[in-house]
Write a structure and sequence with these properties.
Seven copies of one chain form a homoheptamer. Chain A has one helix and five strands; from the N terminus they run H-E-E-E-E-E. Chain A is mainly β. Chain A has a single domain, classed as Roll (SH3 type barrels), CATH 2.30.30. The first copy, chain A, has a five-stranded antiparallel sheet with strand order 4-3-2-1-5, with no helix packed on it. In chain A, a hairpin with a 2-residue loop joins strand 3 and strand 4. The longest helix of chain A has 8 residues. At the A-B interface, strand 2, strand 3 and strand 4 of A face helix 1 and strand 5 of B. Strand 4 of chain D pairs antiparallel with strand 5 of chain F, so a sheet runs across the interface.
Chain lengths: 75, 75, 75, 75, 75, 75, 75
């Protein structure tokens, strides 16, 4: 059974939070609300952890070309 | 309910300020007045915070390929 | 006998883990479950080693443009 | 009232100086004389500030993919 | 007598090892088993030298956009 | 009066030297002998200044995507 | 008399060595044996100077997007 990358995004929509690992050692968590073919993402209830502190960001549009990986959190 | 990235930009037009996080650890705030398909942005009453100081920039065109994320500020 | 890059990915699907070497000196291991033409990858039971520690990530979508090389582990 | 990025460039043509913020923490000022779809810019009476010193450059073609933002100076 | 880049890759297929110099000062050696138009490479019996140590990697897919140069080793 | 970027290059052909500012804080001077749509440049009697020393390079092809700006020297 | 970048490459084929300046402060010399539209190069009798030492590389394919400039050596 093989899976295409976009299927995994589809399955993660509006469910448990996803981890989005970004270039420059940044990382954001949030509920995936949408995406497009460029892997631009819409995250809801997003948070960024920087230097031990958590910054609450609410709704967020992440530009796809900064994404290294996306991982649905296992509950 | 899923949302496409451009919808979020549409909803943020001419409302509360948005945070625009840029590559190179730069961050700009301003009122979103427009955008195009490359995520080039027009910001009004824009400010950049650098090294603790706030620089008032007025109207601003941000080139889309520098954008990491865009977040409408929750009022 | 020559082999095209995508053939190697095909042969590695759902088998032994692959090593995915990423830009920025990051490395991920996991079972390859899928890929597309951009070399976007779906990894299952993925792990990232950072600073000596192993972080278990479960299912993962890796954006292809961060990939340096992919190597099926020899069992 | 929404504005497209290229409109702002149009309004700034041959008027007050614009600030052009570039990658690599560089910044140039000058009168915008022209631009194209890649955001390549023609600046007149351009100056670059580097390390506290101002370098007078005259006419300048800036390659668009180095631009972070463009801001018409408020007089 | 002129040669196109892809001809050199053709002549190196399944012969003596090639050196693949990568961005970020990485270097891999291996037998070239295949390539495509993006200069994605398949290497067999691949080895990476990092910090004086040699890491044996077996079969490898190298993403073309990391390649700086490819040099067939002179035997 | 507006000017398109390529017009400025046209006017600078085979005249006074141009300064070509490159990524990575490099700078080259020379007589512009030609260019193409990618802003690849042909410079004649080119010189690069590195670390206070001037290196005479003769004829030079500069790849456009390294260019930050081009400025015709005011005589 | 204007010259297009590719003409200069044509004139340098199979003649005196060319200097190829690469991103990341690397530099290679060799006889230009071929090139394609992406400025991928084939060099013969190529040498790379790193840290004062010269490494003889024989035939080499340089990927065009690493090239900063190419300069035919004046004999």
């Amino acid at each position: 059974m093989t899976k295409r990358p976009m299927e995994i995004l589809d399955q993660a929509l509006n469910r448990q939070p996803v981890i989005v690992s970004l270039k420059g050692k940044r990382e954001i968590r949030g509920i995936l609300q949408g995406y497009d073919v460029h892997m631009n993402l819409v995250l809801d209830r997003a948070e960024e952890e920087t230097g031990g502190e958590v910054r609450k960001l609410g709704t967020l549009i992440v530009r796809g070309d900064n994404v290294i990986y996306i991982s649905p959190l296992v509950g």
